[in-house]
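Let us practice reading a record.
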Amino acid sequence: MNRSHALPRSAASLLALAFPIHAQDPPAHRGSLDGIAGEISQGDAISSSQGPRILPDAWRNAARHSLTERLHLKFALSCDALAIGTLTNGTRSAASSDTALSVRWQALPESSRWPLALAIRIRNRHAFTDRPPSAIASGQNLLWRPVDGFNDNGFEIPELFLEQHLLQKRLLIRWGQMAADELLDDHPLRSAKQSFLNQAFSSSPATGFPGTGLGLAARWLFQQSADLTITASNVQSSNVSDDGRWLLRSEALFQGLQAGWNFHHGQRLQALAWRSDGLPGESSAADRGLSLTWSLTNPTSDTRWFARAAFAEGGTAAATHFAALGTSFTIRSRDRLGFAISLGRNNLSDTSWQSAAESFYRWQLTKDVQITAFSQLITGHHVARNNGWLATAGLRLGCRF
């Protein structure tokens, strides 16, 4: 072997050891399951899989083929309904629906040197009862909500942004109205429509994310083994309130920096450092914090795990100290069972530690229809007006097209 070729090969071997590449690693620029990319990816998976569906295959395939081939459009329509009840000193019940349309238009093709796409998400949230599920535990002295989303905000356009890939798709850039947490602090079970409802698991109570905001996000990929993400956006609301506001003038700014590493067997580790200005109108002070998340998506058994520890100081995050652990796995070939537990407190509000535990069983009736039964138990000294505990249970129906 020529010596001039041996040195580069040795250097490449050292780099491969430091940054190993595995076929089962998560996609380079993946996002939240409930985000635009996640919804469209699920729709594509349903179309390509075998099994019974509500819509005839001919209709679905014709629509997707026509839109993709002629207009360079990809879309996903999701319809979810939730009915929930609480039990403590008294009983409460609530129900609502959440319909969302995610569309992605490929302005410059993926095969071009600088692929460019326009993404938009439109949703309508409507409550069937006097109060929506998101507010069913209001006044119960909880640090965070037992239900993420499923409010009564009506018609919203929470996301509208341009997305471009550069440098052979190693660099992803997004700018426009977006949810900062779609690329930050993610894990495979963070979805109020697919997995756990409680914000301890479907959101980030100890991270002061804006709900949605005008800003910029960039992610650099290191050979599929590591990535670095930076975001900056104005603060319009908190991710706990989950509003899709459009405020062109906002003096508050959120900034986040995250490093991610992918390991063997679908493991991933994320370290996030963030800072957020306060919202004077909501009496929240400036905040900053750290979040460390480990996750596992086993490609052979489809078992998923996540563990998180987070710390915050200030007023934008619901908790100043937080930890969570959860798992889900497939049973009966296509159904899914999940369990999770969390512990948190907020030093600024003199609140004692609170814990939240949740379990769910998801029946996959067809490829595009699922029914999920869930139950939660929230405990803490001040919970439910010093009663010490709050229990919830309910059903969620979801359709994907």
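A brief commentary: The CA atoms of residues 208 and 317 lie 4 Å apart.
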